[in-house]
Amino acid sequence: MDKLFFRAIVALFFLCQAGFLxxxxxxxxxxxxxxxxYPAGGGTDSFARPLAQQLAARLGQAVVVENRGGAGxxxxxxxxxxAPADGYTLLLALTPQLAxxxxxxxxxxxxxxxxxxxxxxxxxxxxxxxxxxxxxxxxVKEFLALAKAENGKLTYATSGSGSGAxxxxxxxxxxxxxxxxxxxxxxxxxxxxxxxxxxxxxxxAPAVSSMQYIQAGRLRAIAxxxxxxxxxxxxxxxxxxxxxxxxxxxxxxxxLAPPNTPRDIVMRVNAELxxxxxxxxxxxxxxxxxxxxxxxxxxALTSYINxxxxxxxxxxxxxxxxxx
Length: 324
Fold this sequence. Notes:
Helix content: 40-55%
Shape: globular
Order of helices and strands: HEHEHEHEHEHEHEHEEHHEH
Number of helices: 11
Largest sheet: 10 strands, mixed
Low-confidence stretches: none
Mean pLDDT: 90
Distance between the termini: 67 Å
Number of strands: 10
């Protein structure tokens, strides 16, 4: 009986192993969800959907972008942290969710490191300092002078409190001492709409969501928050070169999965993402919108998140920021 029992256990073990390997080898055999912790219509959508198309072509299954915005991205983040660890729910998160929220909020329903399985750092991009054309400024120097003269009456819009755009603005405020009033929106789409309508005159936003309005003359680009000019906007200077030395602020994108997602699946998605970032047409689209493709190992992403959490916690603390 003991031998029969032992053989049964061994057989069951190998059966389970075979089932596991089969699941990993046949992944994916149904559509994959890419969760975006932002409302629809913002700049993140403009990046997420082409990325999903690239990934779908390589995985051989549909990759559906699902917007789950709210609470600074915490709703979408918590959803993924509790999703099945089978590779059919992925997450596209940005700097705020992974490096800022833990300092900005007293409590968030996830841990940026422990609640997810890292896959790859995907890309980074600067924000643009934009104004409604009705505002009589064309340079950073003129903008700073107007902000000082308005003494806090000049308002600026972002995609939300604690967003990357908000952090970019707060960094500028802390380095120049200009008084401005933050008007946070529930996503980049509503913020953009109100600046286009003239309800708020200043906007910090990514090029991917604002380029068409700049080209149409409905927004004026004053400066770039990163450390180099964009090839798509060669005449627009960086904030650093326009009079604020040392200023540099960008947003980065990362793909993650629920905790304990099998390594085989993680590496399959990682490999397909890295290939997507090498696609000439996709790279050209990213560069045209001011986005620099990256691509890393899962381990490098974890290291990067830890480093960025330290960096932005200092900004949050020095500016005395709290979630609004």
